[in-house]
Amino acid sequence: MEKIGFIGLGIMGKPMARNLMQAGYPLTIYNRSPAPISELTAAGATAAASPQALAQQVDVVISCVSDSPDVEAIALGKTGIIHGARAGMLYIDMSTIAPAMARKVYAALQAQGVEALDAPVSGGDIGAQQGTLSIMVGGTAAAFARARPILEVLGKNIVHVGESGAGQVTKACNQIVVAMTAQAISEALLLAKRSGVDPARVRQALLGGFAASRVLEVHGQRILEENYAPGFKLDLLRKDLNIVLQTARQEHVPLLGTAQVTSLVDALLAQGHGDLDTAAIALIYNRLLETP
Questions:
Q1: Which alpha helices (H) appear in 160-232, and where do they start and end?
Q2: Alpha carbon distances (Å) from 201 to 197, 204, 209, 224
Q3: Which of these three, 163, 189, 218, is where a domain ends?
Q4: Catalytic sites, residue numbers
Q5: 18-70 pLDDT, tens per residue?
Q6: What is the C-alpha to C-alpha distance for residues 182 and 180, in angstroms, rounded to an integer?
C-alpha cells in the first residue's frame, strides 16, 4: 500500500485525510495551522515540517488548499514538494485552481520525473466526510490508473476528463452550474413565497421533476431553513468564479449568466458575508424585498 502525504487540512481536506487513514493508508500530513495536525496525529498520522519534508517520506502527495498561489507555493516554492520529490512519485492536487497553474505545476514536476494530476472535487463538506465526492481528473492515463484506488476512497463519481488542466476546466464548468442553479433556486423559492405558496412544498414537487438536482436538494433545504453555515464558503465560490471568468476571457467565451451571479456574490462579500455558505445567495433576494 502506497505511503500518502496530505497537505491542507481544512473543511474538505481533514475528512478526506481521515478517510484515507481509515482505509489503511499510512499518512503523513502538513498544514499551516496546528489544530488539525494534532487531531490527526492523535489518530495515527505522522506530521511533516514542510511540503518538502513530506514529499521525502511518501510515494504519493495529495493537496487540497484554497487557491492557485497556495498550490504554487507548496508544489514549487522554497520548501515545496519539488525539492523533496524523486522520480516515480505522484502528485495529486485536489484544490480548485486556474487550469494554467495546474499545467505549470505539471510541467515542472514532469521535468523531475514526477507525474501530476489535477483532480478538483465537488460535493462539499458532506461529500468529503462521506467519501462520495465527484472527482474530475486531468493528466495522463497511466497516472490516473495509479491514482484510482486512492481516489475511490474519497469519491464515487471519478472521471478522467483529459490531459493536464482538463480537471480544472471541468471544475470551472461545475461552478458555473452550481452558482447559477443556487441563484435560480433562490428566485424560484422567493416567487413561491411571495405568491402565497409554501416554498417547502414547491421544492418537494420540483425534486420529483426535471428541475431536480443535488443543488436543489441541499441548497434548497438550506434556503428554506435560512441555515447558511458554510459547507462551501462564498469567498471561495468568488475565487472559483474568478477562475471561471479569467478562463473565459482567455478563450474568448461570453458567460453572461456567470457574470451576473458573480455580481450577486460580490454584493454579499461587500456586506461581510464571505464566511456564509453558497446558498446565502438567497439573502440578496430576501433583502431586496425587505420593508424599510
A1: 166-194, 199-207, 214-225
A2: 8, 5, 13, 10
A3: 163
A4: 171
A5: 999 999 999 999 999 999 999 999 999 999 999 999 999 999 999 999 999 99
A6: 5
